[in-house]
Protein 1
Amino acid sequence: MSAGNLVVDRQPVPSPSSLRGLWLALENRTAASVFLSWQWLGHWLAVYAPQAELLQVRKDGRLVGLGIVVVTEERRHGVLRSRCLRLHQTGSPRLDQIWIEYNGFLAEQGLEQQVARACLTHLCEQLTDWDEFIVGAVSADQARQFAEISGLHSHLRWQAPCYGVDLSALRATGQPYLDTLTGNTRYQINRARRLYEQRGELRLVRPDNVDEALAIFDGIGPLHLDRWGHGPDQSGYANPEFVRFHRSLITDQWATGGVDLVSLMAGDQVIASFYNLLYRQCVYFYLGGMAREPDNRLKPGLLGHALCIEDYRHHGFRYYDFMGGDERYKSQLGSCHNQLVQVSLQRRRLKLRVEGAVRSARNRLLTEAGRAGDVDRENGGLR
């Protein structure tokens, strides 16, 4: 199928070994994040082997775009069934908990919008038996473009700000990282440093081999579960599929520098550990585990991130990305650089319009109830 001067072809996804060369050849001509790299998506295909279709976009015979689409059925409210297309996700909550960010179609640099238009036009015109195209997490601007290109109704499912530190800009100023922070955050970090130094020398430690790297990842588990919870959609460590994916990723990529595991030690005690993805001199903070301290003056997370940021700056990395999330420490340590969303682009289906109307009515009731509650509080709880 042709979209303008771009031609789109759709076929079952070949084996990872067959697709690898094609993907990498295009990837080298893109400005993609780690989540659209073969480093991530090739591993996703190898570990989860989803039943998927590959979109290939060519311009004058040259490959300029790729995307992997999975067809799933989603059941909501016990009665509504929706046939969904998902980009680079499986539709299984257990498998998708690895949570792709900075998603989208892999596109040659400068042709991102044209590739998206070609792929979305192909899906809308050549496939008729689906109700929703679910994509995330993508930038809010990208989601708006997808809605405009497709002409579909966009329903927002999730959103979060992104924070990070521009290490290249920091390096150019010659400023110490702490000097860029607010006085209160700087004070908290320096106070924590002094208190921890009473236990011994503070140092960042990295594993010497992949077995030690896996041990650090496993050691984060109990702390992460304690912090985020053991239930569905809480800590990924409660999900064996999440753990399987990342242990395999570390085994596959630690030696080549695709992942980094760092522990902050105070004397002989580990007080924080971090699991990061590394790609094109960018650090993507994926998860961490911090010691539980009875003294709230001890801030292992703030201190650990601050030391890691200086360490990565020293080693020539260009960006430290906290990725999506509105946790307070991210806004303390970084600047907001993006807004990520997950959206559902919906065809004009009666069942989806009814669902949307019910959702809007419910939201109005909740808003009105919230306003009434505010009035009650202002009047001392009396009407």
Protein 2
Amino acid sequence: MTRSSSIPPSSAEPTVLPGSPGSRAGRWAPWWVIAFVALWPLPGIAEGVLVLGALYAAVRMVQLRLQGKQRLLSSPAWALTSILFLGYWLPQAFSAFDAIDPGTAWRKAAAGLRYLPFMWLVAIAVATPQRRALTLGGLAVITGLWTVDALAQAIVGSSPLFWSMDQLKWAVSGHGLCSPQEMAAVDRLSGVLGPCNLKFGQVLASLSPFLLFAASRRAGILGWSLVAAAVGVVLVLAGSRAAWLTYALVLVLSGWRLIGVRGLLACVAVGAVAAIVLTVSVPQVGDRVARTAMAWEGENDGVNQALSGRAQIWAAATCMIEAHPINGVGARGFRDAYPACNPDPAAQEVWGAGPALHAHQIVLEILAETGLLGLLLWLAAVAQAWRAWRFAPPEARERARPAMLALAVTVFPLNTHLAFYSTFWGGLTLLLAALYAGSLLARDDG
């Protein structure tokens, strides 16, 4: 007897017929997702697209349900998407009851509800083969364009895409996207996101599976190898050591099935030579390698310097966990709780003036801001995602593999991270979660 998933398939549900209201509603979903990602360099506009997409999805799904017409999502996809949302949002809501700043915590929890219909919209965008091809192909194209743009920045000194947006901003408002101080202080490849939003390395590493899988499908080993090399060069120059580890996981998990163990070892050798060349020839890369090497000096300060002050931040996070073990200090309350938990308030902060804004590590962030209750809810959602993967048929796993890999490396716990309860990184993470659920449990009969 075969075991069944806790989210059973729903093959009895009727297919949405071409030309039906459900089909027309779903047709727009891929373009909404593509627009949201493409506009990440303009966070305010991207957030507006997210909110409008969430409203659209909520209204259309309610209308179709009340009219008794076909659904845009299969029941399993709807259930898993909702579970993943609750695993993210419920800890935020529970942490607000006795948060350091209850007003802000409750406002953020209320605003977080917008992610549920948006995740439905993202899952709808990959619910059929045609929509999935458009959505994942669009993400691959965006990632490819951003990679080429970053390589151009490495050659000419400025990102053509960011420069174009910055010039448009000057023409419209009389000032640029970044301040002159931010423009002058940048010490790494900033890509399309610009010098005032230095998240490009982490973003590109998280999106790289979509480009790598698309390249391997179209051009096999050669396509995968060329794309892997181009993205790797960009990420080394972008200077984010967290992105280096994320991308290393992407290459291993995407490459071993394509090129085998020997091929991966050859890639490691070529990559090591390229990294040495870049370390010697690019001062910013050499500085980060030298800073990382300080961890081997054996002194606590050396480790803290190597981790850009994160050892001090993690000590403060441990203090918050001990003081608020049940439901934490409140989602995004880390900065308010930090002064009371700073282990060395008299010392100059490695990152500059001001308190640490978040824990820079997913497990510590969850425990410090949402407590043990929050961690258990996150783990429950992870368990459901894993269970769905475990009992999915091989063809479902294959179509969901790019999104699964992107999500897995983004939340990989043995790394440093951006803030998962921030608007930007939280939106990116939930986008990947919805792409995974929608692709794995898609209804591919129409």
Protein 3
Amino acid sequence: MDKELAQKLMEIKGECRGITIKTDWDYIFRIKGREGVKKIEEKMAELGYPLKYEEIKTMDFYPIGYDAISILLIKEIFNFTEKDLENMGREETKSSLFFRLLIRYLISLKTFAKEVPKTWKKHYTIGDLEISEIDEKNKYAVLKLKDFSLHPEFCQILKGYFAETLKILTGASEVICKETKCTFKGDSEHEFYLTWK
């Protein structure tokens, strides 16, 4: 990660709530301790976008570039693979405010599907997330994310996040999430295909 890439990411239009950044840093704090978080803080400052873990206000909005830079630094500093990022997304599901807000509506998968777009909008000022298909009998669901292109690494976190959410919702023993469309591969939207058993 260099200053040029950081500046490019900061030019992405849109904002995210501090909770989206804090949740990633919380995960690093759990597995790498305060020293791990300090490494991210130092690198953010070097790039010209200082941010302190304890000062992130969870309900305030931040330029969405901070989220992208943070994710890329986590990958770089801790040598995370795509699978590691996916696992991070899975772990974050268990502790994030985003998930806790969704859990209130867990009467059924159909009710959950109706609440997903509203909950996304509470956390991001760009993008539209929807569950376009749910087939409980054949155990699959399709999620679409439109008008949102942060960075390909963010897709890995979403895969883990969506898979773990559906696992908790359905009580499944396993959920597999595949990104079948991606704006970074020339598609007009992101599409995630989830199956469970």
